[in-house]
């Protein structure tokens, strides 16, 4: 796989000697050809449309002294290539799993006609950016931060602060990924990996547990309770409030999705790690243990209500 510098050199080399009004457009086209490998003539057809011409000229010529740096995204579309002014307007009709390409201006001045080096950053845009970011963070960033050789001169407080923020970001990414799938993930706090081996009856083990781990567990209970309440307070009447007219099928799908989400939450609360956390809070007589029990009861009660609602709705639909 070519690196960014190698692709830049190839783009500039391949753009030489080709006739045209603006050599920068040819440079962009060469980058696109090297990275996305579209069908012959796809870039020319795309860049020749009125909308693309306007976006390309704005990217290449606009003075960006104020405001965000100009961004240009090239994506595979149903009829070839598509040019977009940002990341938020990705068409759903593109090929599944197809990557895109982004160009980002690094300075306020427009790039020169001979080279993009130092003026434009180019990179691949994964088909699933969020999943890509989560994998990159867990398999590249976290191992780098965890390597003691990379933080030999760091004060202990700095190491702990970086570790805490890195864990928080990893949890946030995992929660968002599950939300996209319609499920609620209860992120485990830092230090929870030790809960599988905790004997809540042993006083020595309880004394050896770091106070920061206990604080992290109690903070997790607060966050979990909020997440559970969000799920329980969802109403099937929401489409009606938004002016829609849902069918019985939509109602059934809502309750089915809600039941599956509650079941997913229940299974997480029954894992060995979470049960170990609950036993620890109970042994320490933590004020957060009643909140944990109340949350657990709410999930179980929500599941029971869910089953009853589904049965009634199914009978109504059949009748």
Automatic annotation (TrEMBL):
GO terms for biological process: microtubule-based movement. Residues 214-301 form the Dynein heavy chain tail domain. InterPro entries: DHC, Dynein_heavy_tail. GO terms for cellular component: axonemal dynein complex. One of its GO terms (molecular function) is dynein intermediate chain binding. Residues 1-21 are annotated as: Disordered. PANTHER family: DYNEIN AXONEMAL HEAVY CHAIN 12, MALE FERTILITY FACTOR KL5. This is Dynein axonemal heavy chain 9. It comes from Macaca fascicularis. The gene is DNAH9.
């Amino acid at each position: 796989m070519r690196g960014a510098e190698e692709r830049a050199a190839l783009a500039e080399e391949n753009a030489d000697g080709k006739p045209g009004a603006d050599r920068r457009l040819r440079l962009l086209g060469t980058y696109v050809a090297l990275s996305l490998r579209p069908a012959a003539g796809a870039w020319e057809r795309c860049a020749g449309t009125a909308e693309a011409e306007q976006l390309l000229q704005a990217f290449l010529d606009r003075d960006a002294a104020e405001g965000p740096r100009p961004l240009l995204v090239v994506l595979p579309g149903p009829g070839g290539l598509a040019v977009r002014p940002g990341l938020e307007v990705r068409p759903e009709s593109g090929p599944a799993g197809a990557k895109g390409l982004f160009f980002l201006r690094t300075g306020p001045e427009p790039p020169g006609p001979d080279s993009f080096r130092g003026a434009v950053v180019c990179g691949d845009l994964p088909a699933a950016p969020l999943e890509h970011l989560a994998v990159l963070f867990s398999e590249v960033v976290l191992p780098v931060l965890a390597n003691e050789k990379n933080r030999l001169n760091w004060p202990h407080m700095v190491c702990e602060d970086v570790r805490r923020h890195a864990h928080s970001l990893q949890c946030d990414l995992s929660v968002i990924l599950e939300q996209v799938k319609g499920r609620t993930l209860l992120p485990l706090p830092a230090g929870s990996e030790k809960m599988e081996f905790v004997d809540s009856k042993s006083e020595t083990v309880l004394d050896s547990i770091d106070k920061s781990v206990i604080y992290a567990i109690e903070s997790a209970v607060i966050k979990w309770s909020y997440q559970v309440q969000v799920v329980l307070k969802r109403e099937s009447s929401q489409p009606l409030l938004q002016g829609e007219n849902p069918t019985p099928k939509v109602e059934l799908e809502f309750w089915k999705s809600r039941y599956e989400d509650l079941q997913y939450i229940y299974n997480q609360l029954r894992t060995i790690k979470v049960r170990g956390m609950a036993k620890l809070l109970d042994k320490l007589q933590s004020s957060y243990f009643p909140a944990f029990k109340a949350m657990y009861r709410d999930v179980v009660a929500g599941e029971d209500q869910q089953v009853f609602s589904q049965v009634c709705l199914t009978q109504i639909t059949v009748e």
